[in-house]
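Human:
Focus on the backbone:
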Amino acid sequence: MSLNDFRQFLEENAKDKKLLGHALESITVFANIVADKTYRLTPTAQADLQEIAGAIASITGQPIKKVILVSAASPDPALTKDRDGFNGRTLWSGIESTLWDQLHSKHKLSLWDGFERGGRKCRELGNELWLKLEAHVGRDLKAVFTRSVSSNIGYDLTEAGANHLWYGLFYFVGFCLNGNVDKIQKLAALISLLPKVIPLGEKRSEPGTWYALVA
C-alpha cells in the first residue's frame, strides 16, 4: 500500500486532520528503516537511561526506578545460560508485565472506543487500520527488525521485540486517527524511542525495574 493511499485512508477517517501530521511523521521514520533494510538499535554505551525511563513511565503512569539494558552483544550475567550465550528464556520468564500488556491494560479501551464513527462499529475501523498499517509498513518493519536483531538473544525475544514495536506504532497512529491529544502526548516519547530502543517489560518482584533491548 502506497503512502498516498494510506494518507487518504487516514484523512477520510480522522476526527481531527490537523493531528495526522504526528502519525505520518512517525510512519515515515519506520518506513525509512524498512527502506534501509536494517534496524539499528542503540549500542549499550550510548543508551539514554533517563529517556528510556521517561518513555516507559508515560505509558505505565508509574515511576521507573531502574532500567536494565538487554543486549546480545553485552549480556547481563544474570541472563546468560553460560559465559558465551544469552538466555532469552531466563529473561522472558522473569518479566511480570510486558510493554504490550501495559498498552492494552492502560490504553486499549480508549483506543477502540475512539474508533466509533456514527453508526460504524469501532471494531470495523480499528481492524481496517490494523490491516492497512500492516500492509503499508508493519509487515516489512517486523521482518527487518527480526533479521537485524541477533538470533543469539534466544527464546522468543526477537518476536517479542517486533510485537512491542508493532503495537507501539499501531496505538500511536490509532490515537492520531481518533484525535486523542492526551494519548498522543503520552505515547510521543515511546514512539520516538522505538526506532532505537525496545522496552520489553517490568522485572518480576521488582516494581519499577524494566528491561529494554538495545544493540
